[in-house]
Amino acid sequence: MVVRTSTLAAVLLTVFAFIPVPSGQAFAFYKSGDVVFSEDWESGDLGLWDVYMGPGYVNAFSSQNEWRIVDESLEPQVSPNAHSGRYYAYAGFSVGSLTYGPYANTVLESKIIDIRGASHPILSFYAAGASEAGYDRLNVYVFDYVKKDYYKLMELSEDGLDNPLPKYERHEIDLKPYKDSGAIGSGRIMLTFQFLSDSTIQEGQGWNLDDIMVVEK
Ligand SMILES: [Ca+2]
Ligand SMILES: [Ca+2]
To answer: 211 alpha carbon to ligand 1 midpoint, in Å?
Structure first.
């Protein structure tokens, strides 16, 4: 029987989750390169991710802007499609329209990811898109499930007039400073991608996401 290291680590984490760990004591099950979490959406559906309307103003075009999983073989975009396989997450209007609506406020949120067994977790993901620079944007947060606090990691916003056919870019965020600072105190996090637009000017195709990973450095 072959047990992948990441699977073994997950089992160990489940077992040790019930054993109190003294505050500040480090314990790590993952070794360098181990995958703590990954998502490529090749299941063809949202899986364990949730989609909901974010706090603040009303998502007036919820059904059109809302995050969803797109099959590139059925709904080919002008640019780009999936980064891996056939499927990816997309926030914007119907595929092929190269735009999105005003008052978008749609959140894509992961299941709970347990990073207590990682000593130096690195988040990476691929995003491609465009939206009115500075006003309509993709916000990336990490959410501490126990503390109920959000920490903003990144904001992506690029004008579609300058970049009508965006390409995927890899983004990498070191989560260790958050662990070390105690910001992610519980070690149980959720990844949150929020697409926001304001009332006027929709320049860009919206945003694609694919191949999200948390890896032990
Ligand atoms: Ca994919
Ligand atoms: Ca706008």
So the answer is: 6
CATH number assigned to the domain comprising residue 157: 2.60.120.200
The b-or-e profile of 6-25 (16+ CB within 10 A means b, else e) is: beebbeebeeeeeeeeeeee
**Tens digits of residue pLDDT in 1-39:** 344 444 444 544 444 444 444 444 445 699 999 999 999
Which residues have C-beta under 5 Å from ligand 2, the single-atom ion?
132, 135-136, 197-198, 201
> What is the structure's pLDDT at 50?
97
Nearest-ligand number for the alpha carbon of 104: 2
Domain span at 199: 5-216
pTM, two decimal places: 0.85
